[in-house]
Amino acid sequence: MDYTVKQVTIDDYDAMLALWNSAEQSRRALNPVDDSREGIDRYLRRNPNTCFSAVSDGRLIGVILAGHDGRRAIIHHLCVHPDCRRMGVAARLVSAAEEALKKEGIQKIFGLVFKDNDGANAFWESRGYSLRTNLNYRNKSLNSAIPTGE
Prior knowledge:
The chain has 150 residues and is an alpha+beta fold. It has a single domain (4-126), classed as 3-Layer(aba) Sandwich (Aminopeptidase), CATH 3.40.630.30. The protein is built from five helices and five strands. The chain has helices spanning 13-21, 24-29, 37-46, 89-103, 118-126; strands spanning 4-7, 52-56, 59-68, 73-80, 109-111. The chain has a five-stranded mixed sheet with strand order 1-2-3-4-5, sandwiched between helices.
């Protein structure tokens, strides 16, 4: 499959949302505030050089949102359309994000993956992302519209 990788802009929002909704695991990671048009616009303004999409025949088939705080990076969303998986799209998007983060001086990246998402966990392991078992991930919602999770 032919596709190009480009930086994401807010103009890609509708296509990103459609892509995220095409995959169960991505859909369940969304929240109505951070993943709204306004939330993604805020994220892209803060991280203009580290988010990428894969486009084939004018159709967005993959996206990665990666950002950092100046010290550590986090991959917030990686999604490839179910019809386009196992074709190297995710690996190419991750490589693009990693290179962009290196250029910004970032030395360490982490990501969050649902425990029951075996395919994604195997993918990240194959890319050299180790499983940390000595940490607990904790969160607190400051907005009642954002679920706290399980």
